[in-house]
Amino acid sequence: MSPRKTFFCLVLLLALVIGISYFTGYFLKKSAQNLEKYIESMEEGIRSEKWDEVEKQLATFEKEWSRAEKIWALLVDHFEIDNMSTTLAKVANYIDSRDKALILGEMALLKQYLRHIPETETLKLKNIF
Questions:
Q1: 3-state helix, strand and coil shares in percent for the chain, rounded to the nearest 5
Q2: Among 56, 77, 102, 108, which is disulfide-ready with 94 (CB 3.0 to 4.6 Å)?
Q3: CATH number for 46
Q4: Which residues neighbour 71 within 8 Å (Cβ) at sequence distance 6 or greater?
Q5: 99-120 b/e (C-beta count within 10 Å ≥ 16 → b)
Q6: Model confidence pLDDT, tens digit, residues 49-94
Q7: What pLDDT does 119 receive?
């Protein structure tokens, strides 16, 4: 293969990697923002003690997380996904017991995971080195 063809193939491959990385980061960010809206809605319900609404919102969040988790599993370290799932299980138990302080603490942790995961998986210079 000539040096020109080799160079062209390398540039094409690099562009493909960067494009896929950008799309992956964009998808993770949008998915996380969507999930975070559910958490914020649940937090409002918890603060106003509308427990029936909170339980419905939790069920909706769990469905959305289940869908997102299948795709995230292909893109993200499984340790991060396990942290999300474990924290979500705690939230569900705390909602059953109506413990506002513990629920809100775990929900803050859920939001932190949702913000952290796309940030670490996005193609950025600080994530490469």
A1: 90, 0, 10
A2: 102
A3: 1.20.120.660
A4: 27, 31
A5: eeeebbebbebbbebbeebbee
A6: 999 999 999 999 999 999 999 998 888 888 989 999 999 999 999 9
A7: 82
- 50 three-state secondary structure: coil
pTM equals 0.82
Place of tokens 């859920």: 110
The tokens 């390398």 sit on which residue? 10
Distance, in Å, from the CA atom of 91 to the CA atom of 103, rounded to the nearest integer, reads 6
Residue closest to 65 by CA, chosen among 46, 39, 47, 43: 39
* Count: domains in the chain: 1
**pLDDT of res. 77:** 83
